[in-house]
Every structure is written in C-alpha cells, then in structure tokens.
Design a protein that fits this description.
Layout (H helix, E strand, L loop, with lengths): L11 H19 L9 H10 L3 H8 L7 H13 L4 H27 L2 H13 L1 H6 L6 H20 L4
Helix pairs in contact: 1-5, 1-6, 2-4, 5-6, 5-8
Length: 163
C-alpha cells in the first residue's frame, strides 16, 4: 500500500467528529430559545402562518418574502397545535440544524478534505449570525438551506461526466 496516497472518503473518526459538531450546533441553537421576545417581523411571520393557506398566499402576494417559510410555519403550528413563540422557533432550529450536515456535504464536495469539511462545519455551527437566524421566526435560515441544496445540485450537474 502506498503510504503517500491519501485515503479516499471519510473515516469513522470523521463521522464521529461531524456528529459531535452537529450535536453542538443543535445544542447552541436550542439555548435561550425564549430569551428574546417576539419582534415586529417575527410577529408578521406568526400572523401569516396562522391564516388559512389561501389567505396567507393573498397576504404574501403583497409582501417581499416568498410564502414557503410561512407555509412551513403554518404546518408546524398545526402539527404542534401551538402558537407559542418558543415552539414555533423550533422549526427554525430544525432548519438551521439541517443546514449543518448539508453544509458539510457541500464543503466535502468542494474541498475533498475531511479536515477542511470539519473546520468549515464547526465554523458554521458556532457562527453567531447563523445561530441568530436559526432561532428567528423568519425565512433566512431556510434561504441558506435551500441555497446549499441548490449549490450541491448545480455542482453535481456541471461536474458530472458527459455521456
């Protein structure tokens, strides 16, 4: 076996560290979830989400933000049978937490390095701005998540071997 040739693919140690980083990210996003009161824009999110889907679409037609987050929040509030801010914010926590493994996947595709993937994912896990948006009742965390998924799709589309 050639010792100079790096091993291809993540090791068990990589997966353990990645799981610990994601767990850290989830814990950080869950801290002080009800510390800050609902502010103006979050109130709009709750208002839109508590309307019927038809009314929500009519209301968001005059809003600058697309309705997907509001529809997800509507489904979340129906599923949890709650309009409590801390309960509603858990949707943003889940979206922010889901962004961590998706981000790790993207960085692994781009960098082809387990160490760089772990470092980049750790930086996102503790990023103050991502922590903030992972607790806020707004669509910014969802925008990042969808952007990451789209980037992975496009990268794979453009780097796939030609038939």
């Amino acid at each position: 076996m050639n010792r100079n040739k790096p091993a291809f693919g993540p090791t068990a140690q990589f997966w353990l560290f990645l799981a610990l980083i994601i767990l850290l990210g989830v814990c950080l996003r869950s801290l002080w979830i009800d510390w800050q009161p609902i502010w103006w824009d979050e109130g709009y999110s709750i208002y839109f989400a508590t309307e019927s889907i038809a009314q929500m679409l009519a209301l968001t037609a005059r809003d600058i933000h697309p309705p997907l987050y509001y529809a997800l929040l509507h489904a979340w509030s129906t599923l949890t049978d709650s309009t409590d801010p801390a309960t509603l914010r858990t949707l943003s926590i889940l979206i922010g937490a889901l962004a961590l493994p998706i981000f790790a996947w993207l960085t692994h595709i781009l960098f082809r390095s387990s160490a760089r993937t772990l470092i980049a994912t750790l930086l996102l896990a503790v990023s103050p701005i991502h922590l903030f948006y992972s607790q806020e009742l707004r669509m910014y965390g969802l925008a990042l998540l969808l952007g990451l998924v789209t980037t992975i799709y496009l990268w794979n589309l453009f780097t796939a071997p030609s038939p």
